[in-house]
Predict the structure.
Amino acid sequence: MKNDILYSFRRCPYAMRARWALLICEIKVEIREIELKNKPLDFLNNSKTKTVPILIKKNSEVIEESLDIILWACSESKKENIKLICFPENKKVDIFKIINENDNEFKYHLDRFKYATRYQNSDEEFHFTNAIKFIKRWNELLAENKYFFGDSPTIADWSIWPFVRQFKIACESQKRKNYFESSIKNWLDSFEKTREFKSLMYKYELWEPYSRKNYFPSN
């Protein structure tokens, strides 16, 4: 295997944050874009979780979790001081705490707000109200600093902004107003309004066995 392989789905926030880490850490991988409703056998054979993203390393080791892919990207990057900047040792506990808060609490309410019809007896307004509590709390952090833990983004910012973006999309689709205050809006803009975001969201053809190889980043 000449390249590490990333199985991805373009709009999945977990896959987005893994791709973002690879992009910022300047690690090129073979990318295999798949449909979640029609998962290829090769993907299913390599994944225990049966969900994206997964990274298959050159030595055939499989990394199943997006956060582990982010940490791997930081450790593999040749960019100077990338790990120290994006995963500072003195903030490790706080970084994991806020990521855990996003993945296990905010995401729970986000899903039931955005996809209320998928969940039996889901109260859309209840989950919106609880999701917005996290948005407001994070806004307070961002009112003090440009990013969660200072003037530079850490893996906490990388890990959370795709989910905040998904919340924004859900609010816009329901024509809700005043769901963001200025600090968190500017923070999200600092990721979305960049040339890196365009590279992140490049639309690849769906992968099939024996199809030509595609690489991420594409340039």
In short: Residues 161 and 188 are 6 Å apart (CA to CA). The first strand starts at residue 5 and ends at 8. The chain is about 50% helix and 10% strand.
